[in-house]
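ugh ok so i messed up the first submission bc i forgot one of the chains. this is the corrected input, ALL of the components this time, i swear. 1013 residues overall. if the numbers dont match what u have on ur side tell me asap before i send this to the collaborators (the ones from the other lab, u know who)
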Amino acid sequence: MTKITSAQALRQVQEDLKKNFDPSKKLVTICAGTGCRGYGCMKVKEELEAEIKKQNMDVEVRATGCFGFCEKGPLVIVHPEKVFYQQVKVKDVADIIGKTVATGEVVEKLLYRDPNTNQTVLREEDVPFYKKQNRLVFGQNGLIDPTRIEDYLILGGYSALAKTLSDFTPEGVISEVKKAGLRGRGGGGFQAGVKWEGSRKAHGEPKYVIANGDEGDPGAYMDRSLMEGNPHSVLEGMAIGAYAIGASEGYIYVRHEYPLAVLHLTMAIAAAKEAGLLGKNILGTNFSFDIHINKGGGAFVCGESSALFASIEGRAGEPRAKYIHAVERGLWDKPTVLNNVETWANVPLIINKGADWYASIGTEGSKGTKIFSLVGKINNTGLIEVPMGITLREIVYDMGGGIPKGRKFKAVQTGGPSGGCIPESLLDLPVDFDKLYEVGSMMGSGGMIVMDDKSCMVDVARYFLNFLQEESCGKCVPCREGVRRMREILDDICSGKGREGDVELLEHLSIGVADGSLCALGGSAPNPVLSTIKYFREEYDAHIKEHRCPAGVCKALITYSIDAEECTGCTLCSKVCPVDAISGEKKKAHKIDNEKCTRCGACIESCKFDAILVK
Amino acid sequence: MVNMIIDGKNVSAPKDSMLLEVIRGAGISVPTLCAHESVSRSGACRLCVVEIKKGNRTRIVTSCLYGAEEGLIVNTKSDRVLNVRRLVMELLLARCPESEVLQNLAKEMGVEAQTRFVADSDKGKCILCRSCVRVCEEVVGVSAIGLFARGSRKTVGTPFMEQSDACIGCGACVYVCPTNHIVMISTGDKRKIWGRKFKMQDCSKCGKFFAPVDQLKFISKKTGTSMEDLSVCTECR
Amino acid sequence: MKKTANYAAKTREIVKKHGGDKGALIAVLQDIQEAFNYLPKGAMITVSTMMGIPASRVYEVATFYNAFSLNPRGKHIVKICVGTACHVRGASAILDKFEQKLLIKPGETNQDQKFTLELVNCVGACALGPVVVIDTEYHGQMTINKVDKIINEMNKEGAQQ
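and heres the new structure output, hopefully the right one now
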């Protein structure tokens, strides 16, 4: 692409791209996010291309960013009719090309079928999963081939940067972002504009902007999907932020497990530079800005700002006491603004549509939309973008489609390892930064892990403390030693060695660990324990006092048996049992020897008659 | 100078001083294990925490790293503060049950071992205060030791857990270690530390073995002083 | 001896590519790991000398981050996702089964250097959970009984080669 040297020229490029685009022409988009790649979508894509070639058609197949509805991948949309196909396999390709693309005939069996009405749904936007969403930030993902800057430009990409450079002073940008009420999407929910202002005013040169793409909360992958699927939106947001604070250099810190995100960001930076949208004298102005990519080393604690700076500086990611804020002394001790990927991707939107418009979405204290990853024991796993203030119930039931196999909802865990578990009684809670905090959890980066009655809440608490013990940097005593001791007590409880008073001791230790830890990792580490004690105390008591795991998870506290009524004597369970604990004659009810049984679960998995009982 | 209120008393202090010094200057004792005067501070042990109040907001900070500020209200003995300190001591006693230093400090503070914790047997007396690593880097300038791994597996040692070529056997790490964890054995013309044996230099005047040859070589190289001049012990100089 | 020489040459090339900037240490180590599948001690010492970073600091970084392995890894890397979504869907039973099947714990490589077992905190393919990534292939909706099948097949492939 030739260099674009002014805002006017950018408009011209966008116009030309639109002129050359024939909206009536057939186009097949296929979701090529990491999730769908896991389903094998790239083979489907190859097959689509091969079939089109075979049929001698002139149709573009576009591998785009993540559509969000991971449950039903691989996902394909045939444009311009926008026919939405799900769970597409290689063998379905001939039908899609031969029927839908060639003649417009719809392939019924590939349409989404609403389990409640048993009706098929033709278009993406009418699928219940998408209906209540407001995909302002995430919506373009499905239209863009992230390796082509043109796909972003045709949708108006980089207009916000052009507008910023021509219409706004740096202070003007900051006041717009403040007015919009944009809060950081990475965890703390700090006002982005206030951060920017602090950095703008801070002394010290050079200044830096950083996008945190380390996305460490297990179960959260919205930042990856943005970096992978719409990398230019992140770059554009960062460039606007850099102009606002007076930075000429930026970094994107990406989790090393995200190779596709690194690839697409690298390509996007190169393309933006070539087009004059990054680099020296952007759009012919005096503003210059360049972005580097750093691959993280694999450390959850690097989500903490000072640890992240240490990592970019080439050191172990240990946080330091932050009595001087990063906005004044951050990376290389220079004024630095660190926002997470999703926060940056919101910025172009605010500039394009205005702070008032943005602030009209969401709640009193939390503006705009938020992308959540809805995962765990939920029918519709995927990424959803919803206005702040939507209730958990709407998310879990309307979009998520409820709990699989008709099981009972128990809790939703938000905020990652720093967050908490929210019980059924709070399902009508409007989701925003402050409301989640009030109930003992937090927004975090937007992971929502749904749990059913087969999830043990003590085990969940133990899981998170184990995670945090592994991920603690080990610098300060309360976090390094305290989280470990709390986990040891939870280990005891889960293995039937819990003692009277353990719950009170955990609560007591929580206060000291939270108060005494150096950084937010330790400061919030007790949350999973405290919230599960608060809402599921009876499960702790069952483990400690009755040596019983009500959910049937904690191996030391459960026994397997076979329901003689249900068992048909098919012998499958005895074949898969790795320790020969199951015996019985063919066509007669089997028995489990509890001395031998290791409760590995292989028999439960293999039994077609639900005859294995866990108590 | 800035004016603050510490435990109800008006105290003024130089603007660039740290709370720890200001508090101690006011005659109030604050326990610490990782703030050694020879090295920079890390805030690792958390014993020196105090509660500060600015406007309506109170928070717990480490006094060793928090600078004096006009109008700050400091409480060094609030329940929250004492709770953190007690927890830190309980955790360290469980980590290093053999450490007399910790036992004495705990007694002074009125803290007893938490019996619910299973005491460690593999950590020695090391509380990971990092003073040794910092003195080796900042004062000696060789960075022979470091902090490896993370979380509860974190440990101090030489790289690759092998004898370090960078170590000069000076023993500065032993000097700053608050719990006597680091073992250095000097016998006659030999010294052993961090698993490596060092040959000691005998004083060219009195004949006493006074420093590792490697240390003198290091100083010689750094300062340009000849090995001959350095081969005289401090007492004979 | 020859192998050591190869390490040194490749390591020097990697350090030079990054321009010797001390901030590039993590990136340098990542490239070395990619080249050799782990961080050989000799390579770390070369990095220390060439970049002027004390060996203790290089070793600190190498042992701090999960991405680095200090031991040679097997031909196949089996990564069990232990993210929260996979955990509530039974990832720990899958892990137990892999441990039994391969006779190794996470972070270890089996005797014939064929498999290395690793944990990953989340691969963000939660719809596939519990998910196991072997080399680059995703195995979704894992079951205990699938583990035998997968490993047996892979062992068979190896025998044929």
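quick check: Residues 2-109 of chain B form a domain with the Ubiquitin-like (UB roll) fold (CATH 3.10.20.740). that seems consistent at least. DSSP finds seven helices and eleven strands in chain B.
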